[in-house]
Specification:
single chain; alpha+beta; five-stranded mixed β-sheet; two-stranded antiparallel ribbon; 7 strands; 60% helix
C-alpha cells in the first residue's frame, strides 16, 4: 500500500510531463487527420512511445523511491548535512541542498552560542550558591552566640535562605542530565537520619512531633538527590503542618519511603498538578512565599533516578508522599 501511494505521488510530480505527452498525441492525431493520413499511422508510433514512456517511467520511479528511502533513513543529529545528503539529481535539488546547508550552519552557530550562554549562566549560579554559603555560615555563628527568641526566629529564616540557595543550585544541576548522578547501593537509614538532623531545629521550633522507627533497607540510588527529595518533602511537611502536629517517616518491605503529615492537606483539584513547574495551588496562594519549584524538582530528580514519586491527601487531615525505589531497572555492578 505504501509503495502504491509513492507511485501515485511520483505520477503527480510528473503531471506536466504527462500533460505535454497528451497534448502532443492530440496534435499529431489532428494534423494527420487534416492531411488525410490513415489513423493507423498515428496509433502505431503512439503505442511505441507509450511503451518506451512506461519503461522510462518505471526506471524513474525506482530512482525516485531509492532516494526517498535514503532520505527517510537519515538522522540529522548524527552528522552535518553535507556528510549524508545524497547527490543532487537536478538544479532544483542542488538549490534546496544549498539552502538546507545554510540553514544548518546558522542553526548550529545559534545552538553553540546558546549552549555557551547556558554554561556561563550555570557556572554563575553554581558560583553564587557557593559564595552565598560563606555569609550564611557567618550569620549562623553570630546568631548562636546568644539564645534569644529573636535570634531563633532569625536562624529559622536564615535556614530557609540556605534552602532556597540549595534549590537554585539543584535546579541548575538537574538540567545537566546524568553527569551529576552517582548511582550505587546505600543504606537508606543513614540518608534519612542525616536529613532529619538537618531539619531537627525546624521541628523543635514549630513544636511538631517527628516519628521514625529506623530501617535496615539498602537501596540503589543517588545519595545526594534522594536526600534532596526527602528534604523538600520534610520542608513542605513543616511548612503546612500546624503546631502540635505529627510528621511520620516510614519505609516498608518494598523499599517505599513515605513522608506523612497531619497538616492542612492538598485540595483534590490541585493534587494532579502539584508536580508541575511553578504550580502553587490553593495552599501556595495562601503562602505568598511559595515558589512552586520544590515538588517539581523532586519529581524531576525522581524521574532521573527511575524512582516513582506519588502523593495522596485528605484536605484538613494531612498528606502522604511516597518515593518508590523498587520501580527502577538499575543494578549495581
Amino acid at each position: 500500500m505504501r509503495r502504491v501511494k509513492q507511485f501515485f505521488r511520483y505520477l503527480f510530480d510528473c503531471r506536466y510531463l504527462w500533460l505535454w505527452a497528451a497534448v502532443c498525441a492530440v496534435v499529431f492525431t489532428v494534423v494527420f487527420a487534416l492531411y488525410g493520413i490513415p489513423l493507423e499511422a498515428v496509433w502505431y508510433p503512439l503505442l511505441l512511445s507509450a511503451l518506451f514512456g512506461g519503461l522510462f517511467l518505471a526506471l524513474g520511479f525506482l530512482r525516485f523511491r531509492k532516494k526517498h528511502l535514503e532520505l527517510e533513513r537519515l538522522d540529522p543529529k548524527e552528522a552535518p548535512c553535507a556528510e549524508y545528503l545524497p547527490p543532487a539529481g537536478s538544479l532544483a535539488e542542488r538549490d534546496y541542498q544549498a539552502l538546507v546547508l545554510r540553514e544548518e550552519a546558522a542553526s548550529r552557530a545559534w545552538k553553540e552560542e546558546w549552549e555557551s550562554a547556558r554554561r556561563d549562566m550555570d557556572d554563575y549560579y553554581a558560583a553564587w550558591v557557593h559564595q552565598i554559603k560563606a555569609p550564611i555560615a557567618v550569620m549562623r555563628v553570630m546568631l548562636q552566640q546568644e539564645d534569644t527568641k529573636q535570634n531563633r526566629e532569625l536562624s529559622s529564616e536564615l535556614f530557609r535562605v540556605e534552602q532556597y540557595a540549595e534549590m537554585a543550585l539543584c535546579y541548575v544541576r538537574l538540567g545537566e542530565g546524568a553527569s551529576d548522578l552517582v548511582i550505587q547501593e546505600y543504606e537508606l537509614d543513614g540518608i534519612i537520619r542525616k536529613t532529619v538532623r538537618k531539619y531537627a531545629g525546624q521541628f523543635i521550633r514549630r513544636k511538631i512531633r517527628l516519628v521514625y522507627g529506623g530501617t535496615d533497607a539498602r537501596v540503589v540510588t543517588d545519595e545526594k538527590w534522594l536526600a534532596f527529595m526527602l528534604e523538600q518533602l520534610l520542608s513542605n511537611a513543616v511548612k503546612y503542618t500546624q503546631e502540635g502536629g505529627t510528621v511520620t517517616i516510614a519505609v516498608d518491605e518494598r523499599k517505599r519511603l513515605s513522608v506523612t503529615d497531619t497538616g492542612i492537606g492538598i485540595s483534590p483539584e490541585d493534587l494532579p498538578r502539584i508536580f508541575e513547574k511553578g504550580y502553587t495551588g490553593y495552599n501556595g496562594r495562601l503562602d505568598k512565599k511559595s515558589t512552586g519549584l520544590g515538588l517539581y524538582l523532586c519529581k524531576t530528580a525522581a524521574d532521573k533516578l527511575c524512582h516513582k514519586l506519588t502523593a495522596e491527601s485528605d484536605p484538613g487531615r494531612g498528606s502522604r508522599f511516597v518515593i518508590d525505589m523498587e520501580t527502577y531497572p538499575l543494578q549495581v555492578e
